[in-house]
Amino acid sequence: MSLALWPATASEQAAHIDGLFTGLLVVTGLILLLVAGLLLLFCIRYRRGTQAKRGDLPEFLRRDVELGWTAATLFLALFLFWWAGTLELRASMAPPEALEIHVVAKQWMWKARHPNGAREIDALHVPRGEAVRLVMTSQDVIHSFYVPAFRVKQDVLPGRFTEMWFRPTRTGEYRLFCAEFCGTQHSRMGGMVTVMEPEDYASWAAAQPQEQDLPGEGEALFTALGCAGCHAPASAVHAPVLQGVYGRMVHLADGRTVRADQAYLRDSILQPQRDVVAGYAPIMPSFAGLVDEADLQRLVAYLQSLRGEAAR
Ligand code: HEC
Ligand SMILES: [Cu+2]
């Protein structure tokens, strides 16, 4: 049994975070020892009645000591900043080949959806050794996806996608918590993350009831909601062709240029008047209230899948 206060270490990130934590503990511990040691030493040496020499230090010593400790703490602080900063950056950038799993939070459950369409609730199966990227959103209030064994935690917000990634390193079952108070059943909002060997994960995913994939459902919605009426290449309406829209730089009517990421696509559907594409009339109606979170994810997944054919 390991020390119960220290959670299992089951992801690459967890090992790095533990390293940083231990490093900070050692550095602050050494400083504590140094300060407490000097304090004790001076208390004894300069106690009332001793013959120890008192009075000002010689000028050169005063300057050297001052310069020395200022420089030393500066470099120490910069080093700690660099260490924690690189970890933070790594944690924010998922490798491009990462497995993308969509997560929707609602009072009071976690719903996950795998690339092949497999769904699960309050459970998440992931392959060991592979990067996993979670694209998350909430249907109601703010929740927070927290897996202590992976040392990852990310708020999940309504009306927005937040992302998080990890690379599990050990098979097993690990607790998933909601770490943001979200209502009366908050404390029960959680589940299990199961890390499996990649081949076990593959057979698990294949054994789940097969449904249409996310982009496929998005495509159906795209037609059902009338998007295609304006955006189909043959349409009589002057609207942008959406092939390859994901990731391209879009010039807007107000002169700004933005990258069409997931947030942009989402806003295009909910608030089309906000970022009007240059050269087009602001005629696209808002679909806010008409599509719910799950539908938005489907639509955005469909738009993302429209790669290939190059932009105009
Ligand atoms: C009435 C016609 C019309 C309908 C219906 C419509 N759009 Fe649009 N859409 C436009 C026009 C015109 C623009 C360009 C002006 C703008 O950005 O508002 C646009 C812009 C967009 C953009 C940004 C494109 C770019 O190149 O950056 C996206 C994404 C988009 N629409 C998706 C959709 C989706 C998804 C639906 C259905 C839920 C939809 N549209 C329904 C007319 C329409
Ligand atoms: Cu919650």
TrEMBL record:
Residues 96-207 form the Cytochrome oxidase subunit II copper A binding domain. It holds the Pfam family Cytochrom_C. SUPFAM superfamilies: Cupredoxins, Cytochrome c, Cytochrome c oxidase subunit II-like, transmembrane region. Its EC number is 7.1.1.9. Its main location: membrane. It catalyses: 4 Fe(II)-[cytochrome c] + O2 + 8 H(+)(in) = 4 Fe(III)-[cytochrome c] + 2 H2O + 4 H(+)(out). It is a multi-pass membrane protein. The chain crosses the membrane at residues 24-44, 65-85. The keyword Iron applies. Residues 213-307 form the Cytochrome c domain. Keywords: Copper, Electron transport, Heme, Iron, Membrane, Metal-binding, Respiratory chain, Translocase, Transmembrane, Transmembrane helix, Transport. InterPro entries: CcO_II, CcO_II-like_C, Copper_CuA, Cupredoxin, Cyt_c-like_dom, Cyt_c-like_dom_sf, Cyt_c_oxidase_su2, Cyt_c_oxidase_su2_TM_sf. It is found in: Membrane. NCBIfam families: CoxB (TIGR02866). Subunits I and II form the functional core of the enzyme complex. Electrons originating in cytochrome c are transferred via heme a and Cu(A) to the binuclear center formed by heme a3 and Cu(B). Belongs to the cytochrome c oxidase subunit 2 family. This is cytochrome-c oxidase. It comes from Siccirubricoccus soli.
